[in-house]
Fold this sequence. Notes:
By secondary structure, the protein is α/β, with parallel strands linked by helices. The chain has 3 domains: about 5-160, Rossmann fold (3-Layer(aba) Sandwich); about 175-390, Rossmann fold, CATH 3.40.50.2000; about 390-555. The chain has 20 helices and 15 strands. It has helices at about 10-25, 40-45, 60-65, 75-90, 100-110, 135-140, 155-160, 175-195, 215-230, 245-255, 270-275, 285-295, 310, 345-355, 390-410, 415-425, 425-460, 465-475, 485-495, 500-555; strands spanning about 5, 30-40, 50-55, 95, 120, 120-125, 130, 200-205, 235-240, 260-265, 280, 300, 320-325, 370-375, 380-385. Helix 3 packs antiparallel against helix 4, helix 6 (about 135-140) crosses helix 19 (about 485-495) and helix 17 packs antiparallel against helix 18 (about 465-475). The longest helix has about 55 residues, at about 500-555. The mean pLDDT is about 90.
Amino acid sequence: MKKILIINLRRLGDVFSTAHLINSLTSGTGNQVSLLTYKESSRASENLKNVTNLFEIDRKEIITLKTNKLFSDGFAFEQLFTKLEGIKNQHWDQIINYSNDVVGAYLASYLKDSTKQVIGVHYNSKRNIVTQNDWELLFNDVLPVVKYAPIHFVDCYHKMTGTLLVKEGDKLNTNPSYNETAFNNINAVRREYGTENQSKIIAIQMKTADASKDIPENTLHELVHLIKKNPEMIPFLLIAPNDNERRMATEFNKLHNDEIVVVEADLQAIASVLMNIDLLVTPCTAIKHIADLTDTPVLEVSLGHAPFLKQGSYAKESLVLTDVITSREFTTGKAIAPTSINAHDIMSCIFYALTRTKTIKPRLSNDVTLYQTAFDQMGIRYSPIAGTINTEVEIHRLMSRQLINTMFEQNPDASIYRDVVNLDLRTATEWTNSEKSVVTSVMKDILGTLRSLLQSVENRKSSRDFVMNLGKLISHIDSESLVQIPVSMFKSKIEAINAKTFEENTKEVEVLLYELKSDMQKILQCLNELEVQINASKMEDMITRKLESTKVQNT
């Protein structure tokens, strides 16, 4: 049994997503997990199941003390240390920095004397970043630079902590009274508007905290009209219990003759509502994370800066509707292009979500893509199933995932090769040839760097050549190819070297160069296996065409 502290100083949705790791850490283990959050996020943390203790930091109070000129800064630090005293005085087997930000890193560093192991970003006494394993390097140094993330944050945290993903189990505390009320009221609506057994409740989340992520209001109006045309579907509007959203819902409903059911629920009550609906249509909000935890089917409409590849809906067969990802801007602060998603696109995806067979894919507007989720050996995977698909980008994203499987797990996933081959054989072939060319270039630079490194050992005047070759090698971090992943990790490891002597530095760099060379060989391994799959698929297609041709001639 372990005593574990998770630090999560992010927003409500991020706190809810911690429930997946908490569930895996506590399932059948007897582990005790405690959680440290900001006070404003405690509304989420209080609803998480399997949490032994909750600790809070009142950020607003500390900021007020720090910025008020009447008080010494010491009052702010004293308040912070007082809040942390109950944690500092305990012994923890693990402290996990789930925030992965600067504040979380400092807190984890401050508390490291109280634990056997800190997982996630933290600092040593020299203020150098400390990492425990390659998964932490991937999370901290690779995912921020890779354009289209190949792995979800939830899965990366499971790998960082060495925890197997457990999908089964209750992850939320729900109120029995709320559950009963929601069940009775929603079934009453089903009976009033249709039949209790056949009517489908489509709940639409109206607002987010970021206007760029909101589904446009005119799209929502048209969507509601389309839903109402189907007698077996009943639209609900989900709003938060505040005056602004109440006013918006009232004005919205007036244009629909006040016929739409508006559901107002706080973070505890909303779980009871979600457990009794058939589909949630939502932009990027905390509600989608709650829906994942209650196994409610989700159609996420990903707009604005919503990073669905890293933090999207996390449940089997969830759907994500997005503008084609090559047109998306996931970095906060960058300009957002108008969306191509319209109400008919959303409606088509609703029909698809409610269909059991899933044989007919929805028809979507140009530059709109629908992804469906599925679980593989590394966790959740987003696969494009309809709409505009940039095959080269998707092949690269899937093969990046395969490379991580090969580098870290030594266990490539055959299903990824099948997905790549099914996208487009010609593009897959061209992409593979291009990647091999880049790998060859990197291998030459590795050998050049190794040669100049060994020469600098014999003659330090040769160090300049080594530095130039090393810079040329590291410049491949800007390459949007598979080599970006191992080169980024190599760069981070080089920067973390703390050897005292020139000879020690040289030896560590040499070891890292050979590790990078080994990673290049793993890329080639993945590419060669993909070529085998491509050729096999081409042969299968050729045999199929010949058989069909023979049948035609015989008839």
